[in-house]
Design goal:
By secondary structure, this protein is of the alpha/beta class. The protein is built from 10 helices and 17 strands. The chain has helices at residues 19-35, 56-60, 67-79, 151-157, 188-191, 193-202, 208-217, 237-244, 316-338, 341-344, and strands at residues 2-13, 40-42, 82-91, 94-102, 108-112, 132-135, 138-144, 163-167, 177-179, 185-187, 221-224, 226-227, 229-232, 262-266, 272-274, 280-283, 290-299.
Length: 345
């Protein structure tokens, strides 16, 4: 026996904008999805502020009584839906990237991103555990963006969930362009064989690779992403210039202007709903702010996983870059904690 649900996946332009504006845009999508009959609606990662590497992230993190959480709770109640999405959540003296799921009656489940990607660690602390939302509709597992590339988390969910909810906003980091202060632009994958290989092997990170994990669990999946064009400065710019210079020596001459260097790329554009076999049921077109909805069949009880999770398709060099930059970024986070920026924001 199975339980049939209508699930909606929302894709939003990820360009940063005032929270009130972004909440109004999210509200339009949620309302339309609810009117179409959705039982569950999933919004992208940090849908309420947009995606960038900026100290403004400290100021824009909210508490559980802030405007975003208040709106999410009200929207779930008004539309009688389960509503999920990720925000930067202030918790005591720390900030977390938290995916929140609200029931119509106000009950909340929270999952903190376990694996911030690279520079993201400069703005929030990593979580330490999985979250299973045991709702009347079924048991939902929750993940945020780069978490999906870590098979240890999939293994923990094995045999415990009936569907997976993933909130993402992944820039296409394997195809970054470096914008230098003198107007030069370096598309990294065009200039170095290792990075070219990483780009090729990473293309299905939120596509086939992700669906392979959920089908291994034997459960349907919803993945939401941001879209549009990503452009940002980077944390610890001088450190980043030193490291990137090993691949592109000509950027070393811009060391003193490191704060002016920007990185840019597009997004993965992988907002979709797939069934337990990993087949895509509905997908939002690229560069579109909108939603899709599909009827999915949840197994009556959490099915056993099919052995160990399959190896993720990401190249080992990608994990290596992530590991290193995450530790550099963590030092930036601790520095802002020490100086009181995080606490005071």
């Amino acid at each position: 026996m199975t339980n049939t649900l209508k699930i909606a996946a929302v894709q939003m332009i990820a360009l940063p904008a005032p929270t009130a504006e972004r909440l109004a845009r999210a509200a339009r999508q949620v309302s339309a999805a609810a009117q179409a009959g959705a039982d569950v609606v999933v919004l992208p990662e940090i849908f309420n502020i947009g995606y960038e590497y900026s100290t403004a992230n400290y100021e824009r993190a909210e508490t559980l009584d802030g405007p975003t959480v208040t709106w999410m709770k009200q929207a779930a109640a008004e539309h009688q839906i389960y509503l999920a999405g990720s925000i930067l959540l202030r918790d005591g003296d720390d900030i977390f990237n938290a995916m929140l799921l609200f029931a119509p009656d106000g009950q909340m489940w929270r999952y903190d991103k376990n694996y911030p990607w690279a520079w993201e660690r400069a703005y929030f602390k990593n979580g330490q555990a999985i979250t299973i939302a045991d709702t009347p509709l079924g048991k939902f597992g929750m993940l945020i963006c780069a978490d999906v590339t870590h098979t240890d988390l999939w293994a923990e969910y094995g045999g415990k969930v009936q569907a997976m909810l993933v909130s993402s906003c992944p820039p296409l980091v394997s195809d970054l362009t470096i914008a230098l202060p003198d107007g030069q632009r370096i598309r990294q994958a065009d200039h170095h064989p290792i990075l070219r290989r990483v780009r090729t092997q990473s293309q299905e990170t939120f596509g086939d690779y992700l669906r392979r994990q959920s089908s291994h669990l034997g459960v349907p999946l919803v993945n939401t992403t941001g879209t549009g064009h990503f452009r940002s400065h980077i944390p610890r710019p001088k450190m980043a210039v030193l490291l990137m210079g090993f691949f592109f020596p000509r950027i070393w001459k811009h060391f003193k202007q490191a704060e002016q260097i920007e990185i840019e790329t597009d997004y993965f554009n992988e907002t979709y709903i797939s069934d337990a076999a990993g087949q895509v049921l509905a997908q939002v077109p690229p560069e579109t702010e909108g939603f899709v909805m599909a009827e999915v069949n949840l197994p009556a009880t959490p099915p056993p996983a099919k052995g160990k999770p399959p190896r993720y398709g990401m190249p080992l060099s990608g994990y290596g870059f992530d590991w290193f930059f995450r530790r550099v970024a963590a030092a930036t986070y601790r520095q802002h904690q020490t100086t009181g920026v995080i606490k005071k924001a």
